[in-house]
Amino acid sequence: MNNALQLFIFVIVGVILLWFGSTLFTSVIMPVFGGGKREKLLKSIDERSPGDPQTCPVCSAKLNEGQLVSSTAYPSLNGGKDRFMHIRGCVHCLIGGRNRVCPVCGVILMGDEILVSRLFDRPGKRSHVHVIGCSNCKGPRATKH
Description:
The protein is of the alpha+beta class. The protein has helices spanning 2-32, 37-47, 91-94, and strands at 70-73, 82-89, 115-120, 128-134. 32% of the residues lie in helices and 17% in strands. Strands 1-2-3-4 form a 4-stranded antiparallel sheet.
């Protein structure tokens, strides 16, 4: 009976020490050595809501509430959750106030040139846009290397 009680006490003390050690490791030691960045990033992504100010992918201007980026999303060709999208720009760069720059090749875009991108629809979350390039570097007029 006495050995079973001692074993039970050792198990409880061991569980408490494991909990204390894991809590100490994740909350104190990991942030000091650069850990915890993923959790901070995921927290910042989750805190954003659809009404928060966005950034224009063409001119990098912060958009005010109600300002949108001019874009056209095409239906999916393969029935998947991703589809092609053409991005023209926002109010700031379309009226000529800011340079329209391709984020892939760095070329300044003219008025008729667009960004070619993919739109990933994620149910329950915000959609994700991945810019592939501009109509010069990734479009039909692009020179193949």
